[in-house]
TrEMBL record:
It comes from Gemmatirosa kalamazoonensis. InterPro entries: COQ10_START, ORF3, START-like_dom_sf. Residues 22-35 have a biased composition (Basic and acidic residues). PANTHER family: POLYKETIDE CYCLASE/DEHYDRASE AND LIPID TRANSPORT SUPERFAMILY PROTEIN (PTHR33824), POLYKETIDE CYCLASE_DEHYDRASE AND LIPID TRANSPORT SUPERFAMILY PROTEIN (PTHR33824:SF7). This is Cyclase/dehydrase. Gene3D superfamilies: 3.30.530.20. Residues 1-35, 329-350 are annotated as: Disordered. Pfam families: Polyketide_cyc. It comes from the Bacteria.
């Protein structure tokens, strides 16, 4: 017995291929292996991302360390126990800092950064060799050098761990196109409305700006093509034309930007009945080519501008529009960061 994501409890039978889910309302419904297999296939399609969180952390760490070595070589020399610093030592540390920054940018700038991570491992070996040389000099502080060596060994272990995990990634839908810098994200939500109603609302593209906060307008050009206008940083706008590649009523909408558009994107929206008669599952599968690749996506994440976060926010807004007819916002939504608790009369901009 366990607890489901929806707060329900589950009990799995043995031998008969049938599991029972006890809902919050006290009712029960059988969950067959066929039903569970569908969710397993969805999970399998998203595999291939093991090690990315660790590699992202190490990428940021590498950039921070590199900046310190490049901008404060004298301080860093003393930290690692070199008490007789000279211009040669300072230049060596500056070069090491430049290598760290380059490695960090390479790790963060690639969808599949296993090669960049192995490059970090090679850099760690060089750092250890230089620290070993420093240990042989009696003029240095042996204690600080040994402490620095222990820290490099710890980071090296993390680098090897991340590199090995990334190297084992299978060729799945989750990382297809990653070598070309394509961002791929999947998000889903359950909407408490019938499939036909949910599909019809989304299929009318003029409704999309109501819940997609970066979208200014969608103009339908004909039965297949539409023109999109979206907000961009620094008060700019971006525009592109898109075309439907597949439209199955009450089931699926697929699109892609037309060749020559300033922003390449493609994806699908699937609609299917939610288990237990709870409404409609809406699943968005988006591929997107950001201007600065994965690195640009990581920077955008700090301002909740990363495509995956945008899609999840838009789906929450869509759920609210469908279920209650409007988007609910809080004071924190209107004003990011610290601010007075008293509400203001400023208009809300999603």
């Amino acid at each position: 017995m366990g607890t489901g994501l929806d707060g329900s409890t589950t009990t799995t039978g043995t031998g008969d291929g049938l599991a029972w889910r006890r809902r919050a309302d006290g009712g029960e419904r059988p969950a067959t292996r066929t039903e569970n297999a569908r969710y397993q296939r969805l999970a399998d399609a998203d595999r291939g991302t093991g090690g990315e969180s660790l590699s992202d952390f190490l990428g940021y760490f590498s950039i921070g360390l590199g900046l310190a070595e490049s901008l404060m070589p004298g301080v860093m020399a003393r930290v690692i126990g070199i008490d007789h610093e000279d211009e040669t030592n300072r230049n060596t540390l500056r070069l090491m800092g430049l290598r760290e920054i380059t490695n960090g940018l390479a790790v963060l700038g690639k969808q599949q950064p296993e090669k960049a991570m192995w490059s970090r491992v090679a850099g760690d070996a060089l750092d250890l060799a230089l620290l070993g040389k420093a240990l042989t000099n009696p003029k240095n502080s042996r204690g600080r050098t040994l402490f620095a060596t222990a820290n490099v060994l710890a980071v090296s272990a993390l680098d090897v761990m991340a590199a090995r995990q990334l190297s084992k990634q299978p060729k799945t839908e989750a990382n297809a196109g990653a070598d070309a810098g394509i961002i791929h994200t999947k998000r889903s939500i359950t909407v408490g409305k019938p499939v036909a109603e949910v599909y019809a609302y989304w299929r009318d593209f003029a409704n999309l700006p109501r819940f997609m906060r970066h979208l200014e307008s969608v103009t339908v050009l004909d039965d297949r093509r539409s023109h999109w206008v979206a907000k961009a940083p620094a008060g700019q706008r971006v525009e592109w034309d898109a075309e439907l590649t597949e439209d199955r009523p009450n089931e699926l909408i697929a699109w892609r930007s037309i060749e020559g558009s300033g922003i390449w994107n493609a994806g699908t929206v699937r609609f299917q009945p939610a288990p237990g008669g709870r409404g409609t599952e809406v699943r968005v599968d988006l591929s997107y080519d950001p201007p600065l690749g994965k690195l640009g996506s990581k920077v955008a994440m700090l301002w909740r501008e990363e495509p995956g976060q945008q899609v999840q926010d838009d789906l929450r807004h869509f759920k609210q529009v469908m279920e209650i007819g409007e988007i609910l916002v809080s004071d924190a939504t209107k004003q990011r960061g610290p601010h007075p608790a008293a509400p203001d009369d400023k208009p809300v901009e999603l």
